[in-house]
């Protein structure tokens, strides 16, 4: 066992109030199904994000799936999706027999390139195969260039699904991330900025759509005394116990954003003035929740690769990760189309040089200093690389 306490990438951070709402559910025996905590959690998110409708579900992935059902996806339909993201952004397209086309990032936000998106649309229009939807991801809490993306999608009359799983609490021109497109999706998985241990939320200003999503997420049971079904349904609702955690977690979302941003600032300060070390910029008119602090290491300056750095940290019981591997590079999607930002593939370069640093809101300053010291020791210069290998041998 390592002598140090493990530092995780982004562990759940409870407030202590969760137990209160969970106890209420137990005291009233409202364990299942649904119940008052679910309603209260949905209302809290509506209020926080300033959106008309919200549906609490079992995961962010389920919420993306429901959004795709709402846009009426059918087998063989095309969907455009950010390439630089977690596989859950695209898997629900496959659940419905849809065909994802992946779109590169642009360098300012690391998110969907409007230029590449426009190229994809032009080709699709020529081939008479416009997509049913566009799934835009706000990676690591940074909002994509929504004005440009929405303008293109509006022109082609294609709805936008915002995968805001990582960006609850982030702002785009003073609007909450996830509330600009037709549908928005949040995740409350264990490592997200707030957590219900597992869960998700679908949001939209279209109340009819939320009713339809509620129907589909509850086994699509028709209005009848007996059990009658005319459509395929899902069992996607959130439990009343977990929703209790969610109520307490929403109460602290702004505090969590502040803490995440402080973690980021401490990392950034520690590497100030070092050439070839890049932190993700915050784009104009946006506020990032800084869900995970990422660091890019320019191989022209530093000999150590992200993978080697992740391993070096692991030896000291610190969890770091490479940034998401772009989906167009995944074996699962080897036959899918991909549109580059320019002659250079932006997301691939970011992937080859980037790592996610421990960014837990409960991480102490001393713990973060331990991470920083180790990073600096490993980054020192080319000689250091040799030392890491020697250490491995001993
Ligand atoms: C976490 C995540 C999801 C999936 O959310 P779950 O609640 O784990 O299903 C989807 N997209 C992105 C970008 C994520 O980071």
UniProtKB/TrEMBL annotation:
It holds the Pfam family DegT_DnrJ_EryC1. The keyword Cell membrane does not apply. One of its GO terms (molecular function) is pyridoxal phosphate binding. Coiled coil: none annotated. GO terms for biological process: polysaccharide biosynthetic process. PANTHER family: DTDP-4-AMINO-4,6-DIDEOXYGALACTOSE TRANSAMINASE (PTHR30244:SF34), TRANSAMINASE (PTHR30244). Belongs to the DegT/DnrJ/EryC1 family. This is Aminotransferase class I/II-fold pyridoxal phosphate-dependent enzyme. It comes from Guptibacillus hwajinpoensis. The lineage of its organism: Bacteria, Bacillati, Bacillota, Bacilli, Bacillales.
């Amino acid at each position: 066992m390592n002598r140090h306490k493990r530092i995780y990438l982004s562990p759940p951070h409870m407030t202590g109030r969760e137990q209160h709402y969970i106890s209420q559910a137990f005291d009233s025996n409202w364990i299942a199904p649904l119940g008052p905590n679910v309603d209260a959690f949905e209302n809290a998110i509506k209020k926080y994000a300033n959106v008309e409708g919200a549906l609490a579900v079992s995961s962010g992935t389920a919420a993306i799936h429901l959004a795709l059902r709402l846009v009426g996806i059918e087998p063989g339909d095309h969907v455009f999706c950010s390439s630089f993201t977690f596989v859950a952004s695209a898997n629900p397209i496959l659940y419905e027999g849809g065909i994802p086309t992946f779109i590169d990032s642009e360098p300012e936000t690391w998110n969907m390139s409007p230029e590449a998106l426009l190229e994809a649309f032009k080709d699709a229009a020529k081939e008479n195969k416009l997509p049913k939807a566009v799934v835009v991801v706000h990676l690591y809490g940074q909002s994509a260039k929504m004005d440009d993306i929405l303008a293109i999608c509006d022109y082609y009359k294609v709805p936008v699904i915002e995968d805001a799983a990582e960006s609850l609490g982030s702002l785009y021109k003073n609007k909450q991330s996830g509330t600009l497109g037709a549908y928005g999706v949040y995740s409350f998985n264990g490592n997200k900025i707030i957590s219900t241990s597992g869960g998700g939320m679908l949001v939209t200003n279209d109340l009819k759509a939320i009713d339809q999503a509620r129907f589909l997420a509850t086994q699509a049971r028709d209005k009848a005394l007996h059990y009658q079904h005319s459509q395929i349904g899902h069992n996607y609702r959130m439990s009343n116990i977990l929703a209790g955690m969610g109520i307490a977690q929403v109460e602290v979302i702004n505090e969590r954003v502040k803490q995440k941003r402080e973690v980021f600032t401490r990392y950034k300060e520690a590497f100030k003035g070092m050439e070839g070390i890049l932190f993700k910029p915050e784009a104009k008119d946006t506020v990032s929740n800084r869900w995970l602090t990422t660091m890019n290491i320019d191989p022209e300056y530093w000999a150590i690769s992200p993978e080697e750095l992740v391993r070096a940290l692991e030896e000291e019981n610190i969890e770091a990760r490479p940034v998401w591997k772009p989906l167009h590079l995944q074996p699962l999607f080897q036959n899918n189309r991909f549109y580059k930002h320019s002659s250079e593939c932006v997301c691939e370069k970011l992937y080859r040089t980037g790592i996610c640093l421990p960014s837990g809101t409960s991480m102490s300053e001393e713990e973060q200093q331990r991470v920083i010291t180790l990073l600096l020791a490993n980054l020192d210069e080319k000689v250091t690389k040799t030392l890491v290998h020697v250490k491995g041998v001993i």
